[in-house]
Structure formats: structure tokens, C-alpha cells
Amino acid sequence: MQSETKTEYVLASASELSLKKTFECGQCFRWDADANGVYHGIVSGKALTVWEDNGRILCDADGEDIPFWRTYFDLGVDYNEMSQFFTEPPYLKMCADFGRGIRILRQDPWEALISFIISQCNNIPRIKKIISSLCAYFGEALPCGLFAFPSASVLAGLSEKDMAPLRCGYRTEYILNASRAVISGELDLHALTRLPSEEAFAQVRRIRGIGDKVANCFMLYGLHQMDRFPIDVWMKRALERHFPNNFNPAVLGPYAGLAQQYIFYYTRMNEHSDALGCS
């Protein structure tokens, strides 16, 4: 991954961006830490190594790619300002304090769509394994020795037999169906970014194999629609135990998705187990 133009660039402070919390809160699946806590990942065909040192978050990115990575980590947004509204109930404030440093990544919509279809009724290690295999089998080989996420056109041309080595089970049909919907224009990912949240949600939900949870995950992590509030088994448990019976996530306003991540991360870290499905 090293080149003459790569330097130890300071991306952010460790208080602004917690690598562990951000990469391990269930929103992304192609980042892995080595024994020293250094993370390696690939986004939109770009590889990055990123680590914490003396309260700073450093990376080895090419200088010309720094704006791309700052956008990816959403570093132009003040998350402390968002979080100041998360005070009631007290459990929410506790989750927000515990999760401080989490940032909602600006992920590629296509990769997010397929990743969260794979996430259905799945645990995070297995999701990561399937996605890694998907890229190794069908993605373009990159100079860094990793693989790009396969394009919609590549996946749309595959059969269920071609996908069998991935062991996706029933999700295989949904992956192929979504790929063909994107290629045919039935699902226009670019157009979705310009639609109001509820309209985009309705369009995504029309695709076979995409339920409410996956659609909300895709919109939060793939379209950066911060008002979305995905609910899986962990979130149901937290809402039932710690929130009023009539609690409506809509009251959290335009940053409900960030509140959701704080709740999910706190719940998962304190249950000592792998999460099922997406966050």
C-alpha cells in the first residue's frame, strides 16, 4: 500500500473519530484491524491504512485523496452539536456518551445496498466473510493486493450456481435481483439521492428481498439519510427495555440515525455477543 506520495497525514483527533467504534458499530464490513490496532480497508477501489497515535488519527493516503477520505469519514460535520439533543430518556444520553467518536460513514450506495442484503439474519463475522469472498471471486484485482467491490453489471450477469461458493443461502436470489434492478433502471441509485427520504424508502422497499430494516440501513449508510432509524433484534431489545412504550424515533429529528448507532453500539458492547442483521 505504500508509495512515495503517501505520508502520515493527520485526518482528525481521536475524540472526533474513534476508529474502533466507527468500524465496529455494524455500519461497514470491509475494515479489519491487525494485532497493533491498525485498520486496513478499501473504499471505492481506494485502499487505506489508518491508525491512532497520541490522540491523533493518522493515515497513509495519497495527498490528492485526502478530500475523499475526509468526506468518507464525514469530518466536515460537528457530531457534538448533533449529540447535544440526545438527552432523554437518560439511557439515550448514556449511549451517546459511550459512543462518542462514532461517525456515520459516507459509503458507496451500491456497495451498501448489497452489503445490507447480505446482512439479513446474519452476524457480523459471517457478513464480512461473505463480502470478502464476493469481492475476491467477482471484484477487480487492485495493485494493493485487495479486490474492489464487484459492479452491478458483473453481479447481474451471474447465476445462483456462480454464487454458490459464497454460501449466501436465500440471500443469493436477493443479491441477483437487486443487481438486475439497478442495471435495468428499476432502482436508480443516483436518483434516490435526490429524493425526499420517504419517497426513496418506498422505492427501495419495492425491490424483492428488501424489507424495512435493510432499506433503512441502506438509506442511512448508503445514502447518508441521517433521519433513518434501522431496527433489528438489538434495537428492539433496547427500545423495549429502556424507552417509553409509545416512543417514536421520529422525535429524534434529522439525526435519528446517529442516535440509533449510539444505542446499537452500547447495547452490542454490553451484551458481549455478535449482532444479528444490520445495526
Short description:
The protein is α+β, with helices and mostly antiparallel strands and 279 residues long. It has 14 helices and 5 strands.
Report on this structure.
It is a single chain. By secondary structure, the chain is an alpha+beta fold. Among the domains are: 1-76, TATA-Binding Protein (2-Layer Sandwich); 109-222, Endonuclease III, domain 1 (Orthogonal Bundle), CATH 1.10.340. Helices cover 44% and strands 9% of the residues. The chain is built from 14 helices and 5 strands. It has helices spanning 19-23, 66-72, 79-83, 90-98, 109-118, 124-138, 152-156, 160-163, 171-184, 189-192, 197-205, 212-222, 233-242, 256-271, and strands spanning 9-13, 31-33, 39-43, 46-53, 56-59. It has a 5-stranded antiparallel beta sheet, covered by helices on one side. A hairpin with a 2-residue loop joins strand 3 and strand 4 (46-53). Helix 4 (90-98) packs across helix 14 (256-271), helix 5 runs antiparallel to helix 12 and helix 11 crosses helix 12 (212-222). The longest helix has 16 residues, at 256-271. The two termini are 30 Å apart. The model is unreliable at 1-5 and 273-279 (pLDDT under 50).
Highest CATH level, the class of one domain:
Mainly Alpha
Characterize the biggest β-sheet: 5 strands, antiparallel
Order of helices and strands: EHEEEEHHHHHHHHHHHHH
Order of strands side by side in the largest beta sheet? 1-5-4-3-2
Beta-strand segment tally:
5
The CATH topology of one domain is Endonuclease III, domain 1
Unreliable residue runs: 1-5, 273-279
List keywords for this structure.
5 strands; Endonuclease III, domain 1; 5-stranded antiparallel β-sheet; disordered N terminus; single chain; globular; disordered C terminus; TATA-Binding Protein; alpha+beta; 279 residues
